[in-house]
Write a structure and sequence with these properties.
Largest sheet: 3 strands, antiparallel
Distance between the termini: 11 Å
Order of helices and strands: EEEEHHHE
CATH topology: Arc Repressor Mutant, subunit A
Helix content: 40-55%
Strand content: 15-25%
Strand order of the largest sheet: 2-3-4
CATH class: Mainly Alpha
CATH architecture: Orthogonal Bundle
Number of domains: 1
InterPro entries: PQQD, PqqD_sf
Pfam family, one: PqqD
Number of helices: 3
Structural class: alpha+beta
Shape: globular
Protein name: PqqD family protein
Radius of gyration: 13 Å
Number of strands: 5
């Protein structure tokens, strides 16, 4: 599945984290280094399998060892409205 950043999201980056603001709700979120990487992959248009593969290559970890964590994190971002799924035809 491919995701898009929600239209209501604005971001700014600091040395340590990516600060996300949902302009509709006024909620702020801070993403750590791994969260920033995943957010950037989503902005680049990578799907969940491409994100998983890229992370496994970056950190030399087998895809199967991080699959559930990555899927859980993507679901969390979708649940709080930072990203939304794009349904491909």
């Amino acid at each position: 599945m491919r995701y898009a950043i929600s239209e209501t999201i604005k971001k700014t980056e600091t040395d340590n984290e990516l600060i996300i603001l949902d302009i509709t709700s006024g909620e702020f979120y801070g993403l750590n280094d791994i969260g920033k990487i995943i957010f950037n992959f989503i902005e680049q248009g990578k799907n969940n399998e491409e994100i998983l593969f890229s992370l496994s290559q970056m950190f030399d970890i087998a895809c199967n060892n991080i699959r559930s964590d990555v899927e859980e994190y993507l679901n969390y971002l979708a649940d709080i409205g930072i990203i939304r799924p794009l349904f491909e035809s």
